[in-house]
Amino acid sequence: MNGLRCYGVSSTKTFTLVSLFLLPLSLCLCLANAAFDLNTIPFNDGFSHLFGEGNLVRSPDGKAARLLLDRFTGSGFISTRHYQHGFFSARIKLPAEYTAGICVAFYTSNADVFEKTHDELDFEFLGNVEGKPWRFQTNLYGNGSTSRGREERYRLWFDPTKEFHRYSILWTANIIIFYIDEVPIREIVRNEEMGIDFPSKPMSLYATIWDASNWATSGGKYKVNYKYAPFVAEFKDLVLDGCPLDPIDQVPAAIACADKDTELQSKDFNFITPERRSAMRKFRQHYMYYSYCYDTLRYPVPPPECVIVPSEKQRFKDTGRLKFGGSHRRQSRRRRHTRVNRPISTDDQLDM
To answer: What is the DSSP string of 306-339?
Structure first.
């Protein structure tokens, strides 16, 4: 039997499957084997400044970067190339203390090329008042399907301001997996009914920090307090493991990227082992507090890619909305995608 390494316990200790049941849940999101075998690249080799004059700070060795938000501007960076499928990843440390109203986003998108038919895959970290934990959400759009938001929202089993953790997006022709460290937290498997809503065009990788006071914390109740500025998000050990492709290239992606797609499908991160699936199930049962698949107010009939898990459905009950120390007000609003303020689409604001 393979040993399992538990994050938050010790990088040198291993535990058998039997011993997992004796540990607190936060220590049991464990995975078989070692960390993914990844090829990281220096920041300067794959990324460029996006916005926020002076608020992108590269490390002296050119391998990492910090994004700052102050009262004048946020900031962001973008990959210098578009990719047709890939594994996109970074180790990130989020701002501490009072972070209400802040959004730190790590995502893939092609809205700069396909304004009305863009694809997108998101990690969006939502700040909170001091003493309350960061929350985050994942989302996806395909072919401009911004009217069909596919948000899920979660808590974390660790403090993301204390140490770096790896956040990753795997995107292939048939599957999308969001990872934290080596824990898969969300899986979307392509099916025919999903049609053009599955992302299909080359995307760039972005990272941004910006003022989302109007929606990010308790539906806009708590704003960014610049007394605590500058707010700093740190990024290092970046991964761009995909097929570089010009988004308007006439060569079919299936032909141009056939070899890279085969390579991606053979990598460790393309497979959710039984141990990883168990960790994903534990995470979703205990740390996910919203999923569009169970939101009967927005989607009386779940979208076709939804896999209804009975234990999750029972937990979300009739409406699909859980309360965590706050009121739920239905505040559906559309936020236009821009490169400077990178919002999400229509979303029911959920308080925690």
So the answer is: ----HHHHHHHTTTSB--SSS------B-----S
Residue tagged active-site, from 120, 151, 152, 182? 120
Residue 162: partners with Cβ closer than 8 Å, 6 or more residues away: 93, 96
> Exactly one of 97, 115, 124, 234 is catalytic; which is it?
124
Distance CA 328, CA 92 (A): 30
Which residue, 274, 289, 304, sits at the end of a domain? 289
Could you confirm whether 130 is annotated as catalytic?
A: no
Q: Is 234 a catalytic residue?
A: no
- The CATH number given to whatever domain includes residue 253 is 2.60.120.200
The Cα 122–Cα 64 span in angstroms is 21
Chain segment 249-297, per-residue pLDDT in tens: 877 888 899 999 999 999 999 999 999 999 999 999 999 999 999 998 8
The span from the first CA to the last CA of the chain, in angstroms, equals: 39
* Claim to verify: residue 185 and residue 209 sit in the same structural domain: yes
| Whole-number pLDDT of residue 145 | 86
**What are residue 298's phi and psi, to 5 degrees?**
-85, -40
**How many other β-carbons are positioned within 10 Å of the β-carbon of residue 193?**
9
pLDDT at 232: 98
Asked whether residue 22 falls in the same domain as residue 41, the answer is no
Do 166 and 151 touch, CB atoms closer than 8 A?
no
Judge whether 165 lies within some domain: yes
321 is a domain residue: no
As a whole number, mean pLDDT of residues 26-51 equals 80
pTM of the model as a whole: 0.86
